Design the sequence.
């Protein structure tokens, strides 16, 4: 394999990993605070739709981004209402949110654009443009590292770099601030946080809201960065791959980066080589598609390092009376 | 919060949830510029206004009875089997293998064998997540979600690379032999002199589904296993203290649940398509969640909820055919039903309690 091919696969892997990374960090905030969220997929989908629809209607991708985040936040609010205020089953709420997004995007899309559930193609300022990092051109002559910088790292859209910046930011917020400490505590032992006089409900709503913003970014990136319009069911299970990555990462930010990069890379490889010839065996494309899920099951099975979820995850908190 | 009377808990709360889901969905129809009354009328007449409509409604309902029961059995043991979709798909593989490769003399024997195969395949697909939950503590929801995706990839591989007839571009098996053809409801009712539309997909599997309802009722409330299963669902430590083996119960419950989901394949694969196609489950595994929640995990409730969702699906298809309202409206309704009868159940219950309990206090 040539070096250039490797670079192209890495480049495409980074692109494909970005929505996973946003969604994975979204799940990280939510689950660290003790709120399971299998509705990542739905929030991404609704944000993808509203960001594309708004970007097309206004011609501004920034307004699209805001609309996407806002729509994702609405679904987060429903999830919060169901799982925090009314202490319902968080998993069932997540299922409902996924269906709600899947139905609403088509229902609204069809009556808005009359294009069979799609939005028209986005052009010009209605999309995120790629950014060339400084010195990309002049450094491309440097052997090996130069092309790596100019081909792989440079030339992505704004949101890719935001996603990468979100990793240290998430780490800092969760492990170096008071808010982060409390947020993690509320996912492990909410009663202790409550005893300390900090609002469990408030912290959990904050976590769910952050999750909504990040899912909004993931969806907006899909429709206005990676793609150039909204297509029916365009998330195609990415919310669940992000969930898988979250477990793979054992609920830690830096590991989340590695896990999503791995899954993005897997997708890029299977896009480029539908069936992978390894010399001894030929892996069918279907195997490559299933690989993130299979790896997650293996991790969950605890054969390769144990993944321990936050202790109070999925349990509604009932204050003593 | 005061206790609601049992009848209110079982009937009024789900009904109020359902009504709220419908009102909100119809508002969505209004917002998107259509006439909700007209839409509702078309849905009802399309699903229930003719024996043709009933033929489809009952066909969908049969699917949903199986997947609804599957989710319900797991719910009783406090397990959330979200993998009905994958289990039903793998059940379809079981049906296809039995129908394609064994020559059957008569459909009755073929149906028995196909049912057994579908159930075994579905149960085996639930076995690994069940084992991982029971032995290694991996969360069953996550593993069953993963297994849905793995099932889809596996089926894709088997259909494209193994079972596809030579020369065909379709990712599907060959048509099943004539001997495995199941009699449709139209044929059966026609034989006893009741006129019923021909050419609708409802078939003899409906009766298997009804039998499955009876089976689940007896299993849950009339057997030792059912008692253990419910005890385990109510309190795991108490069940363990009472000598119930948690590993065994988890695995058996999930396998029964998987078998029920797998059984759905005799309806959609053997009864309707008569070959295995890609994506044959069409989301029925997930609708099972709505059906089980709506039906309060009781076979009778599930029967009605499955009928309701069957009618919704057929009505939605008619809507998509005759108006510019897409059939995805049904997905919105389904989502809201799951939301109000599942996740926001406590909210609905509080609202019902306010109405029901307040007046009594005023009297006293």
Sequence:
């Amino acid at each position: 394999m040539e070096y250039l091919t490797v670079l192209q696969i890495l480049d495409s892997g980074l692109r494909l990993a970005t929505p996973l990374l946003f969604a994975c960090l979204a799940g990280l905030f939510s689950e660290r605070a003790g709120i399971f969220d299998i509705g990542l997929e739905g929030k991404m989908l609704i944000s993808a739709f509203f960001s594309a629809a708004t970007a097309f209607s206004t011609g501004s991708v920034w307004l699209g981004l805001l609309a996407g985040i806002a729509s994702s936040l609405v679904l987060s609010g429903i999830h919060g209402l169901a799982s925090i205020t009314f202490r319902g089953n968080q998993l069932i709420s997540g299922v409902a949110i996924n269906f709600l997004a899947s139905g609403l995007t088509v229902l609204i899309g069809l009556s808005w654009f009359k294009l069979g559930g799609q939005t028209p193609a986005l052009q010009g300022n209605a999309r995120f443009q790629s950014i060339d990092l400084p010195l990309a051109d002049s450094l491309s002559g440097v052997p090996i590292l130069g092309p790596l910088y100019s081909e792989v790292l440079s030339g992505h859209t704004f949101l890719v770099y935001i996603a990468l910046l979100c990793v240290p930011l998430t780490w800092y917020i969760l492990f170096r601030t008071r808010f982060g400490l409390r947020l993690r505590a509320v996912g492990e032992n909410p009663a202790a946080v409550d005893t300390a006089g900090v609002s469990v409900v408030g912290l959990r709503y904050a976590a769910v809201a952050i999750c909504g913003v990040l899912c909004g970014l993931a969806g907006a990136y899909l429709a206005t960065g990676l793609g150039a319009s909204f297509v029916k069911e365009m998330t195609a299970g990415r919310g669940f791959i992000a969930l898988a990555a979250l477990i793979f990462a054992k609920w830690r930010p830096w590991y989340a980066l590695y896990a999503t990069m791995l899954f993005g890379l897997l997708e890029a490889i299977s896009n480029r080589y539908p069936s992978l010839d390894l010399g001894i065996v030929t892996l069918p494309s279907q195997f490559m598609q299933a690989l993130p899920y299979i790896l997650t099951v293996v991790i969950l099975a605890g054969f390769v390092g144990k993944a321990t979820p936050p202790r109070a995850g999925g349990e509604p908190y009932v204050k003593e009376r | 919060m005061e206790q609601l009377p049992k009848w209110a808990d079982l009937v009024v709360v789900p009904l109020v949830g359902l009504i709220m889901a419908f009102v909100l969905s119809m508002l969505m129809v209004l917002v998107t510029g259509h006439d909700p009354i007209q839409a509702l009328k078309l849905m009802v007449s399309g699903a229930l206004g003719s024996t043709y409509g009933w033929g489809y409604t009952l066909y969908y309902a049969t699917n949903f009875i199986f997947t609804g029961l599957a989710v319900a059995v797991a719910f009783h043991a406090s397990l959330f089997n979200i993998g009905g979709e994958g289990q039903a798909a793998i059940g379809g593989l079981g049906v296809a293998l039995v129908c394609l490769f064994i020559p059957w003399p008569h459909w009755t024997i073929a149906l028995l064998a196909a049912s057994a195969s579908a159930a075994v395949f579905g149960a085996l697909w639930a076995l690994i997540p069940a084992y991982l939950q029971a032995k290694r503590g991996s969360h069953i929801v996550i593993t069953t979600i993963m297994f849905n995706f793995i099932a889809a990839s596996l089926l894709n591989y088997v259909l494209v690379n193994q079972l596809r007839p030579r020369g065909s571009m379709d990712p599907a098996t060959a048509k099943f032999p004539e001997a495995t053809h199941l009699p449709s409801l139209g044929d059966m009712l026609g034989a006893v002199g009741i006129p019923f539309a021909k050419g609708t997909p409802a078939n003899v599997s409906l009766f298997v589904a009804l039998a499955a309802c009876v089976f689940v009722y007896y299993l849950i409330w009339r057997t030792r296993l059912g008692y253990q299963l419910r005890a385990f669902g109510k309190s795991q430590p108490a069940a363990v203290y009472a000598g119930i083996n948690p590993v065994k119960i988890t695995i058996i419950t999930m396998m029964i649940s998987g078998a029920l989901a797998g059984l759905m394949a005799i309806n959609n694969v053997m009864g309707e398509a008569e070959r295995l196609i890609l994506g044959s489950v069409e989301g029925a595994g997930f609708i099972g969640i709505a059906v089980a929640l709506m039906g309060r995990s009781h076979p009778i409730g599930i029967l009605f909820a499955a009928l309701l969702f069957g009618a919704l699906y057929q009505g939605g298809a008619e809507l998509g055919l005759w108006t510019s309202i897409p059939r995805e409206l049904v997905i919105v309704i389904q989502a809201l039903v799951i939301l109000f009868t599942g996740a926001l159940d406590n909210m609905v219950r509080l609202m019902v309690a306010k109405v029901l309990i307040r007046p009594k206090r005023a009297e006293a």
